[in-house]
Amino acid sequence: MPLNQQDQLQLLKDILSNHQVDCCGSIAELEQLERLVKSLMTASNVDNEVLEQIYHYSQNGINASNLDNHIESHQQQLSQWVNEVETFS
Fold first, then answer.
1. pLDDT tens digits for 56-75?
2. Whole-model pTM?
3. How many folded domains does the chain comprise?
């Protein structure tokens, strides 16, 4: 069963929040973020600039030599993105 836009936004926010709080994550989570962002970019009421930033964060994290360091270095952006995703609907 496909996720609707609200479910996708909630999942996006949950993954970003987990990265912010835990300062760690997995490649699978970053790949999920990429898929969610690609899907949400087609929605007219979602800020594509924020989604592009999250997409680049995901891609760079997948290719990072140390994923935890990558996540830790983006703590401020993660907090900002979580707040911004909350405003999408």
1. 999 999 999 999 999 999 99
2. 0.92
3. 1
